[in-house]
Amino acid sequence: MLHALEWILFGAASVGAIVLGTSRHRPARVGPWLLLAASVTCMTVGDVFFAFDLPDAATAWYLTMYVFVSLALIQLTRGGALLLNRARLIDLLAFSCSTLLVVWVVAVGDDNPFGDFPAADMLGCMLLLGVAIRLAVASWFNWSSILLLTGAVGVLGGDIAYGLVPGHWAEIGYMILYLSWGAAALHPSMVELSSPMPARATPWKSSWAALLGISVATPPILLLIEAVTGPVTDGVVIGVGGAITLVLTITRLSDSVQLSSQSLTRERALREASAALVAAADEAAVDDAVRAAVTQLLPQSPVELVFAADDRKLPLPATPTTPAGSRSWWLNPTRPRDPGTDDATLVCPLWLEPLAVARPNGGALVLTGRRDVLTAGRDALEVLAGQAALALDRISLVDAVGRRDSDLYLRAVIRNTADIMLVIDDDQVIRYASPALRKLIGEEDLPPFTTLADLVHPDDSSQVRHKLRENGDGVVYCALQRADQTQVLVEATYRDLREDRLVRGFVVTMKDVTHAHDPVERLPHLDHVDELPAWVNRRSAQHKFRY
User: Fold this and answer.
1) Is residue 113 within 8 Å of 164, Cβ to Cβ?
2) Measuring CA to CA, how many Å separate 98 from each of 27, 31, 88, 206, 438?
3) Which residue positions in the chain have pLDDT lower than 50?
């Protein structure tokens, strides 16, 4: 009775530690750890039955324990754990299972040195140890994987020791399993074992295919040999080994079919998105094509999707701060995650270095949703962002060529006219100025990146900048600064054509009103005198008090 109570305490402590660690650290996948807790529970029940001298019931629970352990390890090695690809692992496990089965049937047989201990347990222990070793090697210095490996070594050592020298000391290996698996769930590194990572397809090689085929064919061949040569004495062992090998083979084929299906889906979605982006004529069409492609690429729609062709349109936390060579990165959350959620934000920049001059402000595709879903489609989303960047650069270059042709046409038409006309970009840089302006201010040519505020009197520059930052058309009165330090009063009428694809800026026409007559008499009545140029206000004051 006391011996059974001891196993109950060990099992309860281990299960409690696994549940506590899972609820505290909140890994991306809770299922593997809950299955691990279920396997520990089954082992505890088996130990209790074994303590009450019920070996048949204990063996049934032990075998059930290995079923839950297998499911847990399958979940841990599924394409989102540290072990990116489990195809080779499954092939090796199947071959190891068939090899152990041959060794058991041929070399051990009825002369079992482990007494009455079932051979199925030995097969389960060896496979469990193989998977634990592969996880530990893949993670490298991950304490949770090392503790899982310690538990696997402990249960194998306990089986061997109890088969050779039954007694209390031989049960230390089982105690190590309880303690190490509970500690593995309590350690923070357990989150890394189930953190989502993109799965990678493994090319099918004939050597590995032959290895898997030999593994599947070994159990029925052994059974046939025993049936032909005499009575079947290892039927149970062969049946268990064949079942394990068959499950591993089905899992391997299922993974291959799933990866192939996902690859075809991504290829079709990217092909359709590429066709839509090639036909897109503006940013709105690109936005629609990207949103439609994201819906097809991800099995679950993201919580939030932001597509901005300009960094200035992005939320402040999502503004790209990493080098331009980065294809994507995870955005650190600005607020703590709510309990029970596993949302993350993925930023895919719309940068292409050779064409950065077309859109210097970049932009990004920002998606917020489940981390495992975004991780699975991260590669495809990076490709989609690159295609969208190409489409935006093409549209920008076509617009730039159109604006250049428009400017050349305007230059040819109004070359000899006396009207003063300017085309100003959104950043207030003068893109085109008619020859009449250069003649008016006495300059042969304007320096590069000259703004209208650079040409006016310093007292009027802030007013001009303010007017050109507003939306809509308007009129502004200002004084142009000439090369000989004299001033020219002009009436500048501007039109806001920043939304026009062929202009993308302000069109300003100026009229010289300096020599018409006195500034106070010739200017229209204004409710606010602040709208007048500063030097006109000074002349107005002199005009009023000159008598």
Assistant:
1) yes
2) 34, 29, 16, 19, 90
3) 80-83, 113-115, 334-341, 517, 519-529, 539-547
d(CA 396, CA 264) in angstroms, rounded, equals 32
Task: Spell out the SS3 assignment of 310-327.
Answer: CHHHCCHHHCCCCCCCCC
Amino acid occupying residue 203: P
Contact 17, 183 (CB under 8 A): yes
Structure tokens at 362: 């970049």
The C-alpha atoms of residue 360 and residue 356 are separated, in whole angstroms, by 5
Q: Record the pTM.
A: 0.56
> Cα 507 to the chain's mean position, in Å?
43
Q: Judge contact between 94 and 212, C-beta under 8 A.
A: yes
- Measured between alpha carbons, how far apart are the two ends of the chain, in Å? 122
Model pLDDT for residues 22-44, shown as the tens digit of each residue? 888 888 778 888 888 998 899 89
- C-alpha R_g of the chain: 38
Q: Identify any residues that bridge with 425 across adjacent strands, giving them in sequence order.
A: 505
Among residues 20, 18, 31, 102, the alpha carbon closest in space to that of 72 is found at 31
Q: What does each C-alpha distance from 3 to 9, 176, 178, 468, 531 come to in angstroms?
A: 10, 16, 15, 87, 96
For the segment 61-80, what is each residue's pLDDT rounded down to a tens digit? 887 887 788 778 777 766 54
Q: Determine contact, residues 8/56, Cβ cutoff 8 Å.
A: no
Q: Which residue has the tokens 């507003």?
A: 470
Residue ranges with strand state E in 309-419? 329-331, 343-349, 364-370
Side chain identity, residue 157: G
Amino acid letter, 127: L
